Amino acid sequence: MVNFCIKALISLCLLLSLNVSLFAQNYRVQIAAFPEQVPFTHFVFSGIPDIYANVDQNEINRYYLSENFHSSQEAETARKILVQRGFNNAQIIDMVKEKSLCEANDPAADQGVIYTNINTEHLYIRHFYFGFGKSNLSLEAKESLDKIFLKLKRNPSLFITVQGHTDASGSADFNLALSIRRARAARNYLVAKGIHFGRIKVKVFGESTPVAINISVDGKDEPNGRKYNRRVVVVLTDQYGEVVNDIERMRDVPGHLRINRQTLRQQLIYAELKR
């Protein structure tokens, strides 16, 4: 019966897509999100074969039902079925609302990109920034980590993944080492406050995963973009490794500084020239 419900919902979405001019598919259902990639069989064995995946700007692997939905009611029916299947953090994403949060020149408005909100109080994904070449925690970073500490203390079943990132200044080896120091600084702060190190996983990326441009379109240094890349991302997960309820979203990096397909290619060319 549950299989029939999901198939019926997907069939309905396919039918609606034949007349997009009259019925826009404005809702997307996220099945789950993980800091680590999981095999598609994780979903297939739960009777959900029609899915697609992407990786967001925080290096979170997100998995969605393959079809969008015409109404919030249809999306909610699909979400409830997913919860019954054990995906307790299934989320509905209002794509019209997502676009309304974009700036006029924001590439995400046309690409349908979803950017996680790091400023909502109850959110379970946070990130904070560092000075050029620095790995010491700012007052703002410590305040953010204090909130994360309280969440972990009140919820002993939660775990965290700490990601270290840098901008593209300096060599790749230097930046990898710097991202390690930044991630460890956040981890050590939480351990010092009493969180067992076994609940904290560290991942480092160096300069490889920018969220903003390091150079402008004319090849000049872009310090306003670089500051967003000098970051640590903290992701809270449940005992199964799944990212906990992060549906609240907004844009942190300004649209004109954000990485898109064109600017990513440009940054990669710059990185090759730097070698």
Question: How are the elements arranged and paired?
Answer:
Elements: H1 2-17, E1 27-34, H2 41-44, E2 51-55, E3 61-65, H3 72-84, E4 91-94, H4 95-100, H5 108-111, E5 125-129, H6 139-154, E6 159-165, H7 172-192, E7 200-206, H8 223-229, E8 231-237, H9 261-274
Parallel strand pairs: 6-7
Antiparallel strand pairs: 1-3, 1-4, 2-3, 5-8, 6-8
Helix pairs in contact: 1-3
Strand order of the largest sheet: 2-3-1-4
Overall average pLDDT = 78
Let me know the largest β-sheet: 4 strands, antiparallel
Total helix count?
A: 9
Q: What proportion of the residues form beta strands (DSSP E)?
A: 15-25%
Q: What would CATH call the architecture of the largest domain?
A: 2-Layer Sandwich
* Number of E strands: 8
CATH fold title of the largest domain: 60s Ribosomal Protein L30, Chain: A
Sequence of secondary-structure elements: HEHEEHEHHEHEHEHEH
Distance between the termini: 57 Å
> Which regions are unreliable across 5 or more consecutive residues at pLDDT < 50?
2-23, 111-123, 247-251
Q: Would you mind describing this structure in some detail?
A:
There is one protein chain. With 275 residues, this protein is α+β, with helices and mostly antiparallel strands. The chain folds into two domains: 2-100; 125-274, OmpA-like domain (60s Ribosomal Protein L30, Chain: A, 2-Layer Sandwich). The chain is 37% helix and 17% strand. It has helices spanning 2-17, 41-44, 72-84, 95-100, 108-111, 139-154, 172-192, 223-229, 261-274; strands at residues 27-34, 51-55, 61-65, 91-94, 125-129, 159-165, 200-206, 231-237. The strands form two sheets. Strands 2-3-1-4 form a four-stranded antiparallel sheet. Strands 5-8-6-7 form a four-stranded mixed sheet. Strand 6 (159-165), helix 7 and strand 7 (200-206) form a beta-alpha-beta unit. Helix 1 (2-17) runs antiparallel to helix 3. Residues 2-23, 111-123 and 247-251 have low confidence and may be disordered.
